[in-house]
Write a structure and sequence with these properties.
The complex is a heterodimer of chains A (210) and B (397).
Chain A lengths: L2 E5 L3 H11 L4 E6 L2 H11 L3 E5 L6 H12 L4 E6 L4 H10 L4 E3 L4 H12 L7 H10 L10 H4 L3 H11 L4 H8 L3 H17 L3 H9 L4
Parallel strand pairs in A: 1-2, 1-3, 3-4, 4-5
Helix pairs in contact in A: 2-3, 6-8, 8-10, 9-10
Chain B lengths: L25 H9 L3 H13 L3 H12 L16 H21 L7 H19 L2 H6 L5 H27 L8 H60 L4 H20 L9 H16 L3 E6 L6 H22 L4 E8 L2 E8 L9 H4 L1 H13 L3 E7 L3 E8 L5
Parallel strand pairs in B: 1-2
Antiparallel strand pairs in B: 2-3, 3-5, 4-5
Classes of the chains: A alpha/beta (210), B alpha+beta (397).
Chain lengths: 210, 397
């Protein structure tokens, strides 16, 4: 069974998510403090860490960065109070494999965690929208064409996610396998994490993050 | 001059101070060497400058020749005795007298000005750093009182000097001695009380900033009370969980735009207009509508209005008839035209059969779009869901 660790400074929310996930996953532990979370995750080595973006003491970014330094195999799913990608882009750049909003339903959350545990990426519609915005093909300044732009197929997958479709539906609509959809999303995630594309930097600095 | 260095190196009588410097650190360095407050050394330089600029010349010479203070932790100079300091002061006076005699002199105001400067130095020296203390010293401990008397003494020196200076000025010849004394006293008071007045003004400013902050806090509290707390109260009185979610979402949207002043609040933009339409639909039908917009449109406003109107109608239909738990809106601006997708994963319908009984799609969506040169593509399947694709081009229709 996939082991899940929860990090959130909002205790009521933590308790709620915990009870929602208890049936489907092994809850390795939880923490509402950045430093304590890093220590516990290093000891408990859970498969997936569900981490809140906004926390005192550095927030989710600190947790992700510090844990990945010593335990690069840990997968992170970021949780944000809102569907605003500016909250989360720093998390993705730090190494989170996806993000969902706190208003997400229990089934969708379970699905997202399973996907993360399998090594896939999870994009919300608004993050997909941001990716399309940031990698807009109309801006041809590219240092590394392979990393700094999306393939037409990746763009199409992002558009489908932005339109609210699940991976399975996207696969049907584009006549490709679910595995292929996952591959495209993972590849976009990698580009999002390592691309030096200037829109990404500008976009982040506009919002005073990273 | 003694040194703890084993090797006997040349030692300057003083070094330019690295800690206490206004220009070149000469004044501070000499003061450190003498163990006297640097303000007196500086006053001496200013007075010497009145003797045909002697002070300035000496200062520049020292600044050029004397090296910066090396880290002299291990080297201890003996502090000069007060007799030595007084000797230096007398030497300065003697040199100035020589300059006066040989005519390198700025006139009769030099000596009274010297008096003013030293009076000021004495007054500020004790008042400058510890003004509150020296004021409190009136009724305070012995050494405090002494510093208070120094302030008074300095002031008297300064006022006396000022009276002489002012009386020698041509333009003030007509005034009586009393008026001059009053003027001098006022000037002296301003100079000495200046720092204190300044700190008073600073205090007032700080207080003003604090008041503004607390007013902002009060405004925040009022806003939270009017909106968030009211909504929370409503939520507590609601049994319908769908309604609760809608209330929470619309409150979240409002609070967010209030806190971050997001572009969503601007209905002139496509983003803002769609967001506003979505929240209207949410409120009307208790179905969450998420909006994702890529790019910013530059459509003429009539076309944008038509597009948003059609999109709103499509959202309304999806929320009302599809039975889907949520509606997704995705708008993308590409190459001058705007595509909007309104997607639900609800009941779907047979698109061949709708044109008769569903006026909404025929008129409000298709008609509106076509009148402005737009296109509508409807893709619906029973049991799978519906996607309405609106396209509005920015060019001439």
């Amino acid at each position: 069974m996939t082991s899940v660790f929860l990090v959130d400074d909002h205790r009521i929310f933590l308790t709620g998510v915990r009870s929602e996930l208890e049936d489907a996953f092994e809850i390795a532990g939880s923490s509402f403090d950045v430093d304590d979370a890093v220590d516990q995750i290093r000891t408990l080595r859970p498969d997936v860490v569900l981490v809140d973006v906004h926390m005192p003491g550095g927030g989710g970014v600190t947790v992700v960065t510090n844990v990945l330094e010593t335990n690069p195999d840990t997968s992170f799913l970021a949780l944000s109070v809102s569907d605003s990608p500016e909250d989360v882009i720093a998390m993705i750049r730090a190494g989170a494999r996806g993000y969902v909003t706190k208003s997400i339903g229990p089934d969708e959350l379970t699905d997202a965690i399973t996907r993360i545990a399998a090594g896939d990426a999870v994009f919300s519609p608004s993050l997909a929208g941001f990716v399309l915005d940031a990698f807009a093909s109309s801006m041809p300044v590219q240092e590394d064409p392979e990393l700094d732009s999306l393939t037409p197929r990746e763009q199409e997958v992002m558009r489908q996610i932005a339109r609210g479709y699940a991976y399975k539906q996207i696969a049907t609509r584009l006549s490709i396998s679910v595995k292929t959809v996952e591959t495209h999303v993972s590849s976009v995630l990698r580009k999002l994490q390592v691309s030096n594309r200037h829109e990404l930097a500008r976009w982040a600095s506009d919002r005073r993050i990273v | 001059m003694t040194s703890t260095h084993t090797e006997q190196r040349f030692q300057w009588p003083f070094y330019r101070s690295t800690k206490d410097r206004l220009f070149g650190g000469v004044g501070g360095g000499i003061a450190e060497r003498l163990g006297a407050p640097s303000i007196y050394v500086r006053a001496a330089f200013i007075c010497a400058s009145l003797a045909a600029g002697l002070g300035i010349v000496l200062y520049l010479l020292a600044a050029l020749v004397v090296p910066n203070d090396p880290d002299r932790e291990d080297t201890t100079h003996d502090k000069a005795s007060s007799a030595q300091v007084a000797g230096l002061g007398l030497m300065l006076v003697a040199v100035m007298l020589v300059f006066q005699t040989i005519g390198l002199w700025f006139g009769p105001i030099v000596w009274p000005t010297t008096l003013v400067i030293f009076g000021l130095a004495i007054a500020i020296d004790t008042s400058g750093l510890n003004y509150e203390q020296s004021l409190a010293g009136i009724a305070g401990a012995g050494d405090m009182r002494r510093s208070w008397w120094l302030v008074v003494g300095g002031l008297v020196m300064m006022v006396a000097g000022l009276v002489v200076v002012l009386s020698s000025l041509e333009s003030l010849q007509g005034m009586g001695v009393l008026a001059l004394a009053v003027l001098a006293a006022a000037a002296g008071f301003l100079i000495v009380a200046g720092p204190w007045l300044w700190s008073l003004i600073e205090d007032l400013r700080t207080e003003r900033r604090a008041r503004i902050r607390s007013e902002e806090k009060a405004e925040m509290a009022a806003h939270l009370h009017d909106s968030v707390l009211q909504t929370l109260a409503l939520i507590q009185r609601t049994d319908d969980s769908k309604k609760m979610v809608t209330l929470a979402r619309s409150q979240e949207r409002e609070l967010r735009s209030w806190l971050f002043d997001e572009r969503a609040g601007d209905v002139e933009t496509l983003r803002g207009a769609l967001a506003q339409a979505a929240s209207k639909v949410e409120e009307a039908h208790n179905v969450p509508v998420s909006v994702v917009v890529v790019g910013e449109s530059s459509l003429p406003s009539d076309r944008q209005t038509a597009l948003v109107g059609a999109a709103t109608e499509a959202m309304m239909n999806a929320a009302e008839h599809s039975g889907a738990p949520k509606v997704s809106v995705f708008a993308e601006v590409a190459g001058g035209s705007v595509d909007v997708f309104i997607t639900d994963q609800g009941a779907g319908f047979d698109s061949a059969a709708i044109d008769e009984d569903r006026k909404g799609i025929a008129e409000s969506i298709r008609g509106r779009m076509q009148r402005h040169g737009g296109k509508v593509h409807i893709d619906s399947e029973l049991g799978i869901g519906t996607e309405i694709h609106l396209t509005m081009s920015g060019g001439i229709a």
